[in-house]
Design goal:
binds CU-O-CU linkage, binds copper (II) ion
Length: 744
């Protein structure tokens, strides 16, 4: 197979605005932004440069320095002055740190040299740094600066500039003096480009047809408000369309029911067809026991249950118990822990719940189809200790999902392989606990504990609660309590909750005042065509708070932020391991081969900037046309260069392994990956060199574009366990391997 990768130096060449100076070489600048390859002044790109052979050695040289650094360039007034700003994210309990509106938050530190004495520039005594969006309003003062290191505080604009001016004093509140240094945020380099020059095939009218495409497809729904490249209009997936159909009318899906199982209890679970009417379209879907989501299984921590599963769908399948440290042969991975359960067949699972918290079950075979069609459900594992959580008035288990509908109904899937292989299949209708309109009624003063699970194929959510009547009012404070496998060391208050596919977060919210509140997903997508951010706000549900006062006031407990001594003590056993060097390194990247030329070319024009998270599906047609014929997402062992299923890692129960994971910024279409490890638990130690100071056991970690993340994996459970990206289409493209853990 002829494989293509981009050469990493290309990025830097593309960014060079002033090749003569390299501000990053100022003394003291942290690794993140120093020691970058020098700019060469090479052309932005040519198709030839893209054919360079894949680079030798596997680690990206720098974790995406161009996404984490701002070079400060001197204006005429600044003489020799130069500088660089490092962007680090303030701590958050999530894989990325964003505002409730979904803007990425960064702490800025400036390293400046050769600023002249300000008095030499006129009547000035000090230098002051400012941040401003590209429209130059507002201009926010960051503070006085001088040669050396300067903490500038936090900035959360989508695109912005940093300015340094000479001023009469460090106390000025408005910028009036001469500009001496200026720099632009990495995001600001994303601009509308001259598409005719950059992507001729993507601009071509009429579009150039792809000779390998399947002609059987209708073009899927577009993303409203984002113009499409005309040359893309002829692109079609190179696989044929697939939509499961059923002869006899299937029953209507029912809402989820709660199944409380005692230790030793048994659940009969079947996967089969259901009918639904969603936003005026009749669709045929799958369900567990006819329910959307599947039955909510409630068990006590420490119990073992049996599940008699039968497959009434036309596809081979299996049930994976995500996050549960169960016996390997019941992990539900066809080809690894069991044979697929063929249509009409059965399998008996034995599921032991070692850890308290929220888990979920879903198929592990053509997950992109089966999970999207409705096969997913939660398990809520009640802790043994009564004081494990704070008292609340109510607990809500909420499964977040989206589904992709055209006017006619469901958009078909790829038959021979998944399509939407590049970015995953974003839905255009949100389903919260299976419904486009989720609602909840509580009394004023009630505290609700939400157990959120992201069951979507690829979408990362940014959830907040705001008053319906005033969407500009501040969001309700959210107390963050736990995540995938139990509680945080310390509770914290946030304004929004970010969760990537398969992640869970346990949070508490106090609804103190009567009224209607919206559960929102609020993100900043990218209009790739115009090179601008595009805000997307979606209402996922409503909470109606009645005028009646709560029957039990738990506000005091809500306002108390607990330190969880049990979690701290558990993690204490591992702290000695935190600082050692990594045992293994993984690189997450992408290989593409033979994509339609219009897609290859048009992917280049926004190439110089990638959002830490691709929040929404603003390139629905281009993404739709990609399939296994052309896209392979890669997990690569940096030591051996083995990729995906060729990676062979084996450990013993009791081993503690530190893994450094690079999400390659230089990939053809770099994006985030939620990486999941079966049957074990791990801690996220640090990202881009910044230590995580409030830990929680995880089974899935969101790895933003260009990031380098260290995790500490505890091997507590023998067997053969999958490691994979939980974007369903990335998994289908092969982004997975098996971890062998030998028993003692
Ligand atoms: Cu949700 Cu391989 O898992
Ligand atoms: Cu992925």
């Amino acid at each position: 197979m002829h494989r293509r990768r981009f050469h990493p130096a290309l990025t830097v060449a593309a960014l060079a605005t002033c090749p003569a100076l390299l501000p990053a070489q100022i003394a003291g600048v942290p690794d993140l932004c120093s020691d970058r390859p020098p700019a060469t002044g090479a052309p932005l790109f040519s198709l030839d440069t893209r054919q360079q052979p894949s680079r030798a050695g596997s680690r990206p040289e720098r974790p995406a320095s161009d996404l984490s650094c701002i070079d400060l360039f001197s204006t005429g007034a600044g003489g020799e002055a130069t500088g660089v700003i490092t962007l680090t994210r303030p701590w958050s309990p999530f894989g990325v740190t964003v505002t409730p509106e979904g803007r990425h938050r960064h702490d800025l530190t400036a390293w400046i040299s050769d600023l002249p004495d300000p008095t030499t520039l006129g009547d000035y005594q000090a230098y002051v740094a400012w941040a401003t969006p590209l429209v130059l309003d507002p201009v926010v003062k960051l503070g006085q600066v001088q040669n050396g290191e300067n903490a500038l505080g936090e900035v959360a604009f989508n695109k912005y500039m940093v300015l340094v001016t000479a001023e009469a004093s460090g106390d000025v509140t408005e910028r009036t003096g001469p500009l001496v240094l200026r720099g632009r945020s990495p995001s600001s380099r994303m601009e509308a480009h001259d598409l005719m020059a950059l992507a001729p095939a993507a601009e071509a009218r009429p579009a150039i047809p792809d000779p390998f495409a399947s002609p059987l497809w209708e073009v899927p729904p577009r993303y409203e408000g984002v113009p499409m490249l005309p040359g893309i209009m002829a692109a079609r997936p190179r696989v044929s369309p697939l939509l499961p159909t059923v002869d006899t009318p299937a029953p209507l899906a029912e809402p989820r029911q709660i199944v409380e199982l005692p230790d030793g209890g048994t659940l009969d679970l079947f996967a089969g067809f259901v009918r639904r009417r969603i936003q005026g379209r009749d669709v045929t879907m799958f369900a567990f026991n006819g329910q959307h989501p599947g039955p909510l299984i409630k068990v006590d921590q420490g119990s073992t249950i049996f599940v008699n599963f039968s497959n009434d769908t036309p596809f081979p399948t299996a049930v994976h118990w995500h996050g549960v440290r169960l016996e390997n042969r019941f992990d539900g991975v066809p080809g690894v822990t069991q044979d697929p359960v063929k249509p009409g067949e059965t399998f008996r699972y034995q599921v032991h719940f070692r850890d308290a918290g929220i888990y979920w079950y879903h198929p592990h075979h053509r997950e992109d189809v089966q999970q999207e069609l409705g096969l997913s459900g939660n398990m809520l594992v009640e802790p043994i200790s009564e004081a494990y959580y704070s008292p609340v008035n109510r607990e809500e288990v909420v499964m977040l999902d989206d589904i992709l509908l055209s006017e006619a109904g469901l958009v078909p899937f790829g038959a021979e392989s998944s399509n939407y292989m590049l970015m995953g299949r974003f839905g255009n209708v949100f389903l919260t606990n299976g419904e486009p309109e989720y609602s909840l009624e509580v009394d004023a003063g009630d505290v609700v504990r939400f157990h959120f699970t992201n069951a979507s194929n690829t979408r990362t959510f940014n959830l907040s609660f705001r008053p319906m009547a005033d969407p500009s009012a501040s969001p309700l404070p959210i107390k963050i309590v736990g995540s995938d496998v139990g509680k945080f060391e310390r509770e914290a208050v946030v304004e929004s909750v970010v969760l990537a596919p398969a992640e869970r977060y346990v949070v508490e919210v106090l609804f103190d005042e009567a009224g209607a509140y919206a559960l929102l997903n609020h993100v900043q997508g990218i209009n790739h065509r115009m090179g601008v951010f595009r805000e997307e706000v979606s209402t996922l549900g409503a909470v109606a708070v009645s005028g009646v006062r709560t029957s039990a006031d738990h506000s005091h407990a809500f306002e108390t932020l607990r330190t969880n001594a049990d979690v701290v003590a558990d993690i204490d056993q591992y702290r000695d391991e935190f600082d050692r060097s990594p045992d293994r390194e993984l690189v997450l990247t992408l290989e593409v081969d033979g994509l339609p030329i219009a897609i290859e070319q048009s992917m280049l024009y926004d190439w110089i900037y990638f959002n830490p998270v691709e929040w929404t599906g603003t390139m629905p047609v281009m993404n739709w046309a990609t399939s296994g014929a052309g896209v392979e997402w890669i997990l690569r062992d940096a030591e051996t260069d083995d990729e995906n299923m060729d990676i062979s890692w084996s450990f013993r129960v009791g081993d503690i392994v530190k893994i450094r994971i690079h999400n390659d910024r230089g990939a053809f279409h770099a994006m985030q990956h939620p990486l999941h490890i079966h049957g074990q638990r791990f801690l996220v130690l640090e990202q881009n060199g910044v230590r995580n100071t409030n830990l929680v056991w995880k089974d899935t970690v969101l790895l933003p574009t260009g990031s380098t993340t260290d995790i500490l994996l505890e091997l507590s459970n023998p067997g053969r366990w999958m490691v994979h990206c939980h974007i369903a289409e990335h998994l289908e493209s092969g982004m997975k391997f098996v971890l062998d853990v030998e028993g003692n």
